[in-house]
Amino acid sequence: MGPIEFVFLTLFIIFGIIGVMRGYGRELGVTTMLLLALFVLEFIDEGYQAQLNRVLGIFVGSAPTALTLARTFVYCTVLIVVTYISYEGETLSFPGKRGRLFFDLGSGLLNGYLFAGSLWYYLQQANWPLLKLSGEFTPFHTIISQFLPPRIFDWKYLIGLAVIMLVARIWK
Amino acid sequence: MESLILLATVMAIFGVFGYLRGGKSTLLTTAIIWLGLVLVSRFAGVIATMVNGINYGIRFVLAGGMGALGGSGDKGDAINQVFERMGTVTPLIAADGSGPGLILVFLLLMGLGLLLGALKSLKSKSSPLSLILGLVNGYVISAYLLRMALPEAGILLPLPAGLLGSQAATVTAPLPAGASVTGSALAKLAATLTGLATAGHIAILIAVLIAIFVLLAVRTGSRNSKKG
After folding, report:
1. For residue A133, which phi and psi values (nearest 5 degrees)?
2. How far, in Å, CA of B7 to CA of B5, rounded?
3. Which residue, among B214, B216, B227, would best test binding to A if mutated, counting the most A CBs under 10 Å from its CB?
4. What is this model's ipTM?
5. Would you say B43 and B164 are in contact if contact means Cβ atoms under 8 Å apart?
6. Residue A80: per-residue pLDDT
7. What is the CA radius of gyration of chain A?
8. Which among A7, A87, A139 has CB closest to B187?
9. Residue B76: which region, alpha, beta or left (left: phi > 0; alpha: psi -120 to 50)?
């Protein structure tokens, strides 16, 4: 038996390792991109879900389960694509090189929290479409589920944090 | 605990391999490993028939089967003598796929993936993506091997249902039986945190912590670059 949160905690740790390898200057650029991506997703989810459902309905029909699944697929795809582009391409970077473990590891874990936590939330909303789950969730899962980024932050927090990041980037 | 150490070790080894070899090489290795998993889980019966057939054929040839088929005289008798010399041939893979046979097939495919990934023409620049792919490979391999080779270890790491079909993970995490002290303390903690999260206090707290962390990191970086 293996709790599902183990998968996401592994992902979280992997991002921490990547943070240590790349340095916090580059990791904070990814954090900014993730915050902006999450802002867009949350903004659409809160304000324009009906319109999004209409568009998705053209492809998957109007059944609520199919629409939830399609929304989850779209949100997860956007997150994965943005994260991939942020890590692979020439992207925003902040002052600071690797070598300060606290900031390197902290920024990597922050990205892991934003990425893995959001995937966790969206997959949970769709009732775990890719895995066959059975049994009860652990108390640990129940607690952590309360702190996943899309659950606690609405779009105002996300855009606020993204603006702080951009101001910090240009602040000499 | 040993299983988790094994998992972490295999993931770390494959992660480092992935990072050193670059994206193209690791992607090919990933594709072969995943293909191997699909084959050994979804087509176990076909693989068992093929491997056992090849094994039987080799034993037949080694026992002089080709000479018996091509020689003059009574071929029926000659072939019967070959069968007697062969004796009982134990199948390498059981019909239901149990036993070490399929694990060996998977390990062979994994080795093939690693060998092909080592081709010079596939060497490319190290990237975080290749590290992630390597770690994913390590996870998938460990999850499969733990499931098949050490079922008594009690750790059933989740794998995508589409990959394993009927062998897919049934990820379970039962609550502790009875109202233990730890259980009730956790329940209270969960209730308190849920209350805070609902009221929005947690959002403010985490947002402030993130902002402070970012500002500290950026100011430290700025000071260092001015000194440099």
Report:
1. -105, 145
2. 5
3. B214
4. 0.88
5. no
6. 93
7. 17
8. A139
9. alpha
Beta carbons of B7 and B147 less than 8 angstroms apart: no
SS3 A144: helix
Type of residue found at A23: G
User: Closest approach of chain A CAs to the CA of B208, in angstroms?
Assistant: 9
Nearest CA in chain B to A93: B218
Higher pLDDT, B87 or A130: B87
Q: Tokens standing for B123?
A: 């060497």
Proportion of chain A in helix, strand, coil states, percent, rounded to 5: 75, 0, 25
Task: Return the half-sphere exposure (C-beta side, CA atoms, 13 A cut-off) of residue B76.
Answer: 0
Instruction: Provide the CB-side half-sphere exposure for A78 (13 A, CA).
Output: 18
C-alpha distances in angstroms, A16 versus A13, B60, B98?
5, 56, 38
Per DSSP, the three-state class of A133 is strand
pLDDT tens, position by position, A138-164: 777 888 888 899 998 989 889 999 998
